[in-house]
Sequence to fold (463 residues):
Amino acid sequence: MSAPFQSLRAWLRYLHNKEELAVVTKPVSTRYEIAAYTKHLDGSRPVYFPDVDGYTIPVVSGIASTRQHFAEALGCRTDEMIDKFLHAIDHPIPSEMVKSEAAPVQQHVVTEDIDLMKMFPICLHQEKDSGPYITAGLAIVRDPETGKQNVSIHRLQVSGKNRLGALILPRHTFAAFKKMEEKGEPLEIAIVLGVDPILMLASQAIAPLGQDELEIAGGLRGEAVPVVRCKTVNIDVPAYAEIVLEGKILPHVREPEGPFGEFPAYYGPKSNKEVIEIHCVTHREKPIYQACLAGSDENLLLGAIPREASLLRALRNTVPTVRNVHLTMGGKCRFHLVVSMKKRNEGEAKNVIFAAFAGHYDVKKVIVVDEEIDIFDMDQVEWCVATRFQAERDLVVVHGALGSKLDPSADDGVSSKLGFDCTVPLGAEPEDYEVTRIPSMEGYHFDQHIESRLADDRSFSED
Ligand code: MN
Fold:
């Protein structure tokens, strides 16, 4: 089943028709207030702000903040998302170029007097943020050697009228930029705002360098993403987006950026970072501005689902009987991984732990449980730690490995890793681990025979 959502508007229309879109009826400020509503509704409903102080453009935030939302956007069940994601990485669909006239995102083209803060309701989110940040922009660049595009999301501080400070971690966008910077030249970039959850999710794929995430979005969607060539840069952007900022990352320029409240709920510090200059803006008639709150469930799940897909594949390369993986919300969808597996040989769970450490540097703690455990039920997982784990034989600790630089307890990212093998020993006496059960619970129609009150209400009287 292919997903029906071609655009942010199609997704919002779908939510609106199901009465699952929260609409804030009062005028709101871009200064903290939109962030506050987003936080309040986080994990339940996307929120739309038609009336933003000082702007005619509405804001939408938290467009998908539950696994169910992402599954609906993908047109599958929550337990099918990972397989669907892996299939899309293996079977990308090339984007399809449309003419500018057929691209809503180019209905308006602005090349003069660009003042981003005047044009768009860019939000100030957390108390100590250095200022307003663009948080839901898909950054698209083209590799100068291979010609392949790359899509990623970066926090973007508004540093001037048409100037953005960007945190660009040493991944694919950075690699393309370095190739140009070494020649003393800028790298063209397009920042795309206002897209559906599939495009957001695809942008976070842990795909090899050289794989265009828009083509993964096509694979997820089951059909090509319509794209249009930008007006001033050699980059193709989703034609049904709301807003595109066209510009360049400047070579050999670094300016102060930060602090910024990041996904682990701590501030990323101020330092000198890359600078993007915007020289053209295109947008739809009456565009919708999209925001994403750092550390929100939306932000966390956008990282979790693609990472779970990559980790599942990596773990199955080590032990094919790995069943499922879960990056927990409490672990900020990056640091804590739960794995279920069918253990065939003693010791395999520890191999899975090592494969998980190697699978992504963010993984800090791994809990491995037997296949019948529901790893999305954290009470069950804790029960396994409580009753199937002995530190003396089941604990794995590795010191001095690379972890997340955004974990404040790590030493500039150098971190200890922790593994819990909570699988039942293969040689254990079956009765020692026999789980209690009440016979005939299954298929019993309890609710047919349960009322909230007694037929005879004198039963509880004192006389
Ligand atoms: Mn990439």
Summary: The longest helix spans residues 297-318. The CA atoms of residues 40 and 47 lie 10 Å apart.
